[in-house]
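Researcher: Before we compare anything, I want clean individual predictions. No alignment, no superposition, just each chain on its own. First chain goes here; please echo the sequence and then give the structure tokens.
Model: Echoing the first chain and its structure:
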Amino acid sequence: MLSYLGKRVFQFLLIIFIANSLTFLLPRMIPGDPILEAMQIKAAAAGRQNVDIQAWVATYNEKFGLNEPLWKQYLIYWRDLIRFDFGYSLLDYPATVVSKLKGAIPWTLGFMSVAIFFAFIVGTTLGALLAWPRSPRLVQGMVPFLMVISAIPFYLFSLAMIWIFGVELRLLPTGGGHSPIQMLAWNWATFVDIARHAILPALSLVLFGIGAWALSMRATMVSVLGEDYITFAQAKGLPERQIFLRYGVRNALLPQATGLAISFGLILSSGILVEAFFNYPGIGSLMFNAINQKDYFVINGTVSIMVICAATALLIVDLIYPLIDPRIRYRNK
């Protein structure tokens, strides 16, 4: 077990090393100078025509360490990463990357947690009923529909939700995290306003998630119902409800629980496109805007947090799997 633990920890560190190294290199391969572009935008916005932009750029490059050789920037990057110091935003200086992450992460965690949990509960319940031979025909006939919605990318659901509920029916806001005129406070009006803005992005993920969870649970449940202990329980004359819940659903939930843990580990990166479509003020929109603006430090900080969360979730699931299912044991060969 110790050998297995050491191997998994090594893989965890290797994933973080490779992913963060690529995160450092890839943004710097994008053509263009982000400092120069940012300074030109600021100079134009301020109406300054005679400012020496090149001197301005040189000052900022020195301040951010971008005038150093690439290998030295890489070492500084890892030094700061170990201290969770991601530096300043190139476009919104003097705002720090950490302050931007603190402002974006709660929005993503809020609506993504609700979407993942709701899709898991509904999809898993529906999948179990789909596999149970005594379920109503109406439920069993939903398989083609679930296959269709699970195959459609969730960002297409986003476009459909915007058009139907935002443009045509005008029932829900089409973007943002709250109304511009709404003063954020701990009161009922703020809660309702934030909830209304979160419905469409959450619904886009829920529709896709229900199909995926249901089909996954159905496949696992069909396999479980073919086991000998199910046949034995039926031969003993146990109630159908007990066989379904205690012997069927309970044993089919293990892969689902693993998938749920992984989904929560990937929670920060799962809704990037959806948040970008809805201009939702979460980690996805922050990442999308940083890529468009070539804001190196925001990209590095955002992706690093995503990678660490995902790798940590996978490591935890891998280590607690034998505790969840006693039939699984890791032994040295």
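Researcher: Okay. Second chain, same rules.
Model: Second chain and its structure:
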Amino acid sequence: MAISRIKTSSVLQGFPKSRSLLAGNTAFNPSSYESIATVTVGSGGSSNVEFTSISSDYAHLQIRGIAKWSDTSDDRQLMQVQFNSDTGSNYSRHLLGGNGSSAYVDGVASTTARAGARLISSNASYANMFTAYIIDILDYTNTNKYTTVRTLGGFDTNGGSFQEIVLGSFLWQNTAAITTIKLLPGSVNFAQYSQFALYGIKGA
């Protein structure tokens, strides 16, 4: 006998009476990242960018963006990172970098804070080029250990003679929970249009 119609009630017979895929399951959250704050440097540049009163509601923090520094002579400079206004030599770092033809390593046991995001300068040869970077600040509220940071940054001069990528890590030798992050470009300013976005990474 041919079947001309199937009733929904017949198909669902014996199954839980729910048409939602989430029935009995935890709601799906499509993102583990929550935007906290975003800064874009305006005309004239800025000597620093600071995030303050950072909530302790997350497992980790991440900073993403593009930036350059306003020097017109030196090709590049390491971006500095300071936590809780600590300007002492309480940071150690390790860097691994390359430019397409050679590689280098760098390590400093105790220094002022310098992350491994090496900023390209505002030299006329690189006028419209920025460094892209990611800075991960891990376990930033854990007061039982020093804070570990990992960084990835790089830039390309569109076929020019200068490009670089840097993978780095550094250690803040302090057990305090982080509530303030200050970013500094070195000896001069962040150039106009540099952007910084702070995200909180949720726990499991």
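Researcher: What stands out in the second chain?
Model: The chain has a mean pLDDT of 84. Additionally, The chain has one domain: 33-201.
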